[in-house]
Amino acid sequence: MPRRDDLQRILILGSGPIVIGQAAEFDYSGVQACKVLREEGYEVVLVNSNPATIMTDPEFADATYVEPLLPGPVRQIIAKERPDALLPTLGGQTALNLAKALHEDGTLAEFGVELIGARYEAICRAEDRDEFRTTMQQAGLKMPRSAIATTAQEADDAMIDIGLPIIVRPAYTLGGRGGGIARTPEEFREIVHGGLDASPISQILLDESVIGWGEFELEVMRDRNDNCVIVCSIENVDPMGVHTGDSVTVAPQQTLPDRLYQRLRDQAFAVIRAVGVETGGSNVQFAVNPETEEIMVIEMNPRVSRSSALASKATGFPIAKIAARLAVGYALEEIDNDITRLTPASFEPAIDYVVVKWPRFAFEKFAGSDQRLSTHMKSVGEAMAFGRTFQQAFAKAMRSRELDAAADLHGTRAELVARLERPSSERYDVLLAAFRAGAGCEEVQRVTHIDMWFLRELRQLALHPEAPFAGTRSYRAVDTCAAEFAAETPYFYSGWERDGEARHEVRRGERPSVVILGAGPNRIGQGIEFDYCCVHAAMTVRASGRDAVMVNCNPETVSTDYDTSDRLYFEPLTLEDVLAVVEIEQPEGVIVQFGGQTPLKLAAGLQEQGVPILGTSVDAIDLAEDRGRFGDLLDRLGFKAPPYATAHGVDEALAACTRVGFPLLVRPSYVLGGRAMEIVYDEAGLADYLRRTAPPGPSGAATLREIFLDRFLENAIELDVDALCDGHGVWIGGIMQHVEEAGIHSGDSACVLPPHSLGPEMLEEIRATTRGIALALGTLGLINIQFAVHNGELYVIEANPRASRTVPFVSKAIGVALAKMACRIMLGERIEDLGLPSEAMPTEHVCVKEAVLPFDRFAGSDALLGPEMRSTGEVMGIARDFPTAFAKAQAAAGAKLPRGGTVFITVTDADKAGASGIAALLGDLGFRIVATAGTARAIRGMGVRVDAVLEKIGGGDGQNVSDCIEAGEVDLIINTPTGSGARADGWQIRRAAVARGIPCITTLSGGHAAARAIASARNSGEPIVLSLQEIHRERTRAL
Amino acid sequence: MSPAGRQGRASAFVLLEDGTRFDGVACGAGGRDGFATGEVVFTTGMSGYQESVTDASFANQIITFTYPHIGNYGVSAEAMESERIWARAVIMRAAMNTEDAPGAERGWLDWLTDCGVPAISEVDTRALVRHIREAGSMRGGVFGGSTEMDEAMAAVRAETPMAGLDLARVVTPRETTVHGAGGGGPRIAAIDTGIKLSIVRQLVQRGALVELHPCTTSAADLLASDPDAIFLANGPGDPAALDYVVDTLRKVVGVKPTFGICLGHQLLCRAVGLQTYKLAFGHRGANHPVKDLQTQKIEITSQNHGFAVLGPDGERPIASDEPVRWTTDFGDAQLSHINLYDRTVEGLTLLDVPGATVQYHPEAGPGPNDSLYLFDRFLDQIAAVA
After folding, report:
1. Nearest-5° Cα angle at B93, B90 to B94
2. Which chain B residues in 274-293 lie under 8 Å from chain A, judged by CB atoms?
3. Which of A635, A731, A923, B134 is a good FRET partner for A686, with 20 to 30 A between their CA atoms?
4. Tell me: the pLDDT tens digits for B237-285?
5. Interface contact B51, partner A, CB < 8 A
6. Identity of the residue in B285, B296, B340 whose CB atom sits nearest the CB atom of A344
7. Beta bridge partners of A793
8. Quick one: pLDDT band at residue A957, thresholds 50, 70, 90?
9. Catalytic entry in B27, B215, B262, B269
């Protein structure tokens, strides 16, 4: 009884912007679901606010809505599209919560939309802690005991019930402040006392401690016939206490005897049945005490997850694809195993290799934040590697991380071992160093509780790092069956065997191949946008009659779906690993333009080895990156750039600064996402910057590597242009105007397309300059140029002849897939062959991109925008006018603008005049205006009403700003910290805003846009929803 | 310290009867000089190595583990499926000893060494398995690195091929033993052709009293205690070589409810007149999907067999999921379980006399517990007849 014929149209919800804990894995699962459901003949309606996803490419759904994932807009979409069913299990927690809300507000019932994949009751049973606990108890499964206490007496009573050790967590404190693990009654009472004090609501959560127990995850699938299979077991090398997203994990599990593993398997089935997930995949997490063999259920996700993406990539079993088929009525046995094509999906993969996943952190971006790992996930991406042994896989995963800076491994053996006590992002680097310094497994185990099996392996690896790689590299197929059946799907990894003979399993046809190098682990500055471009490259290469060959090591992505390319090599992106693939493939060329900095860093090395690089030459990329050479080029072309200098070391920098002139933008050379980039206003500020960013060591500051000094154009309008060039002609895809002024990293700035405040002459100058630079660089493919307009003059900030972060946004805004076009150029086509419209700029709609920032994860770090990029993801708002598009983007980014209430304004002196305009507009809209004394004076001076004046933090006896924010008395904050004033003033305000989830706008132009957006929303109510297909059709008609 | 290293990394190699050679390092008994021959087979289970090597069904066989790391949690008494290791030798990619794992009573490699079982590690097991998959299982041996090739090949050739081999006599006990307290449950007489302790455990846990008879037992001996049912165990070798067991069975089928697992399934089928054949490389692992045609449910099964039963028309894969029927010497038989990987017979029910069999291992040990219900079904059927 396959496929349900009573459904025609299915609504899929995506997961929205990339945030910590919810990343590209949901694009991967969403794309699989869209493909499968359309293959099955269903119409798919998709909602996702994230334009950088493949799933929001209009070709993947019948109607694609890049709209906020909120009940209001989705209700409108349901009313408009009238889907028969909603599949909520592929878009992470966001989609699940949204589906739950749509059920609760009656929308689904009103429009007759059936929840498929997971019913409402099942979602509640899995998501609500109490219901989940009850459900587990009824199923006879154990969970760590827990309680809530508001007094010392309640806590004491709970202690008797729970037993020691107990984890104490105060409610609503940042970063778990005031909590701890109590091992004795005395310790417990002390922590409880502190915890009740620390919690603003005097409440503490008490949990039975399973810290140090082994942590295991099982990926379960269940079909409508109640058949269950385990796709994969995953063991966390880090024991309980570190979030699984931050743990190094290994598949399959290594340390449990069969009989104990089978108990876990039985319990995983019991969990999915008790929760009532009728079809689809779930992730069940367990804590296991290896000594007593006690098992506790920790949690379950009734949906696909980060772990299910990992399990899919680790085994070749496509969980999301199969979950989608199960949701529409198929049984597991009715679905083929893609890899063998002979056996059904009702089986459990057997694997004959080891897979290791490493988290990728970005603490360097969040100075001042707590870098210790806990149950709160902090990593921004991950890398995965295969090996024939654990050591091979571990070492490959480790080198896949591509760290910007090596971990600090100074210290004696004792110091290194002591550092291991608190898990940090550098845990394994330190651990290996400790072994090299002579530490034994036992002493490391005492502080880390990591299983001895892993420690013994890691010690071997530390002492003999080359040993696992002795012998010969062979490419092996990921085949789901440990070679029991022949594999048809070309998904490969490399492993080393001591035997001299390479036994590759790669079968290479007659067609020429093109190797596409992916972007590696997601990190800030290099995210899903680059994976999007790589996937487009693969599609284009395939369409051209060549074999697309993908090399990447990021398990979250669409690019590492074996469906995306003709051959997938799941390998680290290092020169050595890539050259080995090239050796096997003998490709026509390698594409390095689409994967961000990762492949670009390899370009020169590949070229040296005689590997053909497709598209823009390595030299041109280098020319654009080299400030001196690029400056000369601009001079020759007669284009203006802000004055700049390149300095080596402190003395040179201090000497050059006056020549360039303040304010200055300073940064080290060759950086991604503006790492360590800052604006300084005077010599003292520069000296301070140089001191802080100097490499460690005695000669630190003196040996500082190359740094760039650029005049910072204050209050300039910044622009981004994405264009195509074939060496002869240039086609401009999009001109984006940043909402924030220059000085905010372009990746963190909201931007609008088309630009909303530039005249036709300036736009023409931008086009001409773009053409000039693209041609002069000999660009073949994509180029991104950043401009600033300062006092009516156009300045070139930088040019990058490669795919930029904004390519997917522009592609969706204009209805032309820029990366595909660029790839066709790289394969030899000319712009005139591409059938492009003469004008790309939309006229009937406006698109706004907004960045999403992870400040809530990094307690202690300033929630301030600056030249260093810190956003993890982005959203897009599409509307008929700028204010509405901006409001949609804000709402999608999680900072839904209020319709009314209280606005708190505090701005720097330079912004005070501008702020009064915003205050006037908001005042007219009925907002209560509160401000700090100086700002209030300025606003009143312009004849605008101020309702209350607040004291700065730490000043006076009146009501304090952060008290107000924490009390929830503020609905919107406008706080501009740029300028030469002390930035620390606003720090607490922004931190409080982040903690309370209050929109906090840090630029004046952002404030203006917000005010206009609020006005527009109040006038016209809920903005109408627009599908990409609609706006692209309009454009085609208009042309 | 890796155990292989501890032994000075003595080289060793695997030689197959077609001349294919894979190199590795010795890590079990005998070091450089130890060697063993047998039928080289592979199992894809990712855990449960100790259960496998102590399963008598692996007698005369050399086990290749496809999962690279073997030995991760040491060995313990409760994972024994018989009183000894039956596998002739063990081939691994990355052997571990792990004597100090929680719950381990001894290291895996120490134990193999104590038991005199040669083992080889650092073998490209995937290449070996792909070779067997293409060429079929064959005889082979594990040899110390200094062994001359022609000497090794002679040893391999001297090994009796599995087809036609009676190994039940090798693994069967000399005396009849009785297990369980018999707390009101049925009395079950089993022909012990190499029974796994997990099977005995599952029956005893359900209150049965289990008699284990030597495989050469007579029908009269089997029926002497007036058991409620006859059970046919798993075991090694070719069912076609066990006509004496088949003859015994023909005297009890129809007299008592009769049930069989694995070799026992093949023997009961032969006893009612059906045919068995040798599979190209067997089923060994813990992930094969089997469909119960009565409930339509799919269970993930533990498998360990090299022979199988032919379909009603002599076919090997059975095309449909229909409960097809055989005409047997004891009335009709109906297909009850089918393997969804290669659609071979996984179980059948005798319709006119009480009896049923499965080809796979519902007792797990190692592998999934999905099929434990069969023991309940078995005991229910006994109760229904009684």
Report:
1. 100
2. 285-289, 291
3. A635
4. 999 999 999 999 999 999 999 999 999 999 999 999 999 999 999 999 9
5. yes
6. B340
7. A790
8. low
9. B262
